[in-house]
Amino acid sequence: MDPAGSAHVECGRCGASMQLPSTARTAVCPYCAAPAIVERPRSAASVDPAFTMGFVFEASRASELVHRWARAQGFFREPGVRLAKVEDLRGVYLPAYLYSAVARSRYSALIGEDYTETETYTTTDAQGKTETRTRTVTRTEHRPLHGEHAAYVADVLVTASRALGNAELEAVEPFDLRAIRRYDPSLVVGWIAEDPSMTAAECYELARREAVEKVGASLHGFMPGDSHRDLVHQTWLEQESLDLVLVPVWVLALRYREDRGLLRVLVNGQTGRVAGAVPWSRLRIALAVAAALLAVAAVVAAVILLEPA
Amino acid sequence: MATACGRCQGALDPEDLRCALCGLAVPEGEGSARAPDAARAEIVRCVTCGAAMAYDARVQAPACAFCGSVTRSERIDDPMEQASHALAFTVGPERAREVLRAWLSGRGIFAPADLATNATVDHLRPLWWPAWIFSALADVWWTADSDHGAHRSAWAPQNGRAAMRFEHLLVSASRGLSYEECARLAPGYDLQRAAPAEGLLSATPAGGVVERFDVQRSAARRRILDALTSMAGAEVGSRYVPGSRVRNVRVSLLLQSLTTRRFALPAYVLAYRYEGRLYRAVVHGQDERMVLGESPTSVWRVLGVVAAVLLAVVLIAWILSLASG
Q1: Hey, which residues 164-193 in chain A have their CB within 8 Å of chain B?
Q2: CB of A28 within 8 A of CB of A75?
Q3: Disulfide check for B148: which of A115, A147, B172, B243 has CB 3.0–4.6 Å away?
Q4: A243 interfaces chain B, CB cutoff of 8 Å
Q5: What would the pLDDT profile of A295-304 be if each residue is shown by its tens digit?
Q6: What residue ranges do the domains of chain A occupy?
């Protein structure tokens, strides 16, 4: 087997030889249509999934969700998307890593504590007389705060596939981790399932970044006072764990214009959340800008013309 | 199968695949299957007709396209909660009635004089109400505002760290009893004498009800964690933050060795009728001194007391005016 390219696999039912990508975990025999699991000799690089989450709806539902999503696209997006045809639709068990750790942080911030003051000010009344009045104003006193924080960071999910980036996966997250099951080949058979094409080290980096972002967000909620600013933190991640999990994703290819490439749209196989990067419609944006300019010009012209000489 | 999490030492349930607290994966009990010597496509066969099977999204399990049979698959690991321990009633139903009558006769000055004699017990139902009892160690990091060290503003930010131990704390899962009722009943139970729930609850007394945990395990854990967080916050606010006035207490917890037991706790729910109206009362199943409930108020008695007080005030004023005159 060539780890970078493809592998020859023999069908367990009819004995036919299949050529499969080296990351494929499942196969369907082109001769006898038998769905199968690809079992490989264990190597240092190969990792068995620890968990999987099953698809909970079928292809027709995924297609329906995407059509509804496409129809709801804004005015400035490519108009063809609303009527786009689904050229390809596949249910894929995407390899991803589930990361958890203990996050210890040191933070510092300026905490705003409000107080009220009565101040006097002078103003002129309707008769033009100057008078002195008082009013209550809210001011903020900023006090420095330095301290420590610790928490478990669980449920960080990052992609392990080069074919589908982390930003794309994040767009259809979250997955319902309560429905997680221990990986069993029978749960993915008949579907496309891949081995990770990214290394664990690369995934650790992605996961750590996401974990630190999560800690940063929770620190904002942790600050006392009426407001705060200049919050900075340094986070150490300890007792890390990384488990390979296969997550269910419907991958659709939409044809929205004949002269353009296909648009990839993902649907969360559990929750039905849809995401895809729909291009902006340059024509519509240009027309809108032109119309706005025209309107401004019309208003300016009207003002100039109507202004008494 | 591991029984405690390798990272936070929290107790694991047999169905757990990951620690609910810190997210660490539970190692698989048995050794994983032997790896094959060469790449080979394995077929998952239907046990009924022998056809190759594929995972089916409709039934969320591998299904056979030919004969429609579905293989037994791991169930989704979020079962309904069930009591594992229960306490026996040590107060009998007759005693509960007597206790209620004694309670009715001691309802104070505003209760009708004939309440104890004229109230009739409409029904008495032995009830086992569900609760989680948990213990944990917590390393707590906190922030808050207090008046300690305040300058221009009345508040100054504070922070710190505290180690806490939570032992045998009770969180109610009952919908039939109110939160306050459960909180008042809780201290009266002798948890040391808990017995396995199955044996005890199968011998339910006549008319008895075992209230079920109407919640799935994941939601239950969320509630337990929320309860722990709010308890830690209350503890920080009352014991750790310097100063006399405190606000905005925020806590972050690293829990260790969390254990949760699911209990069924005994109590009698009684309804009694007085002058045509129904009133509800709860008698503790183990501590007869604990009776909670509502009781009627006599309007005449309230008016009588008000009149007596007014009369006393007038009398005192009159005596004072005589003395000064």
Answers
A1: 177-182, 184-191
A2: no
A3: B243
A4: yes
A5: 999 999 999 9
A6: 1-44, 47-110+147-278, 112-142, 281-309
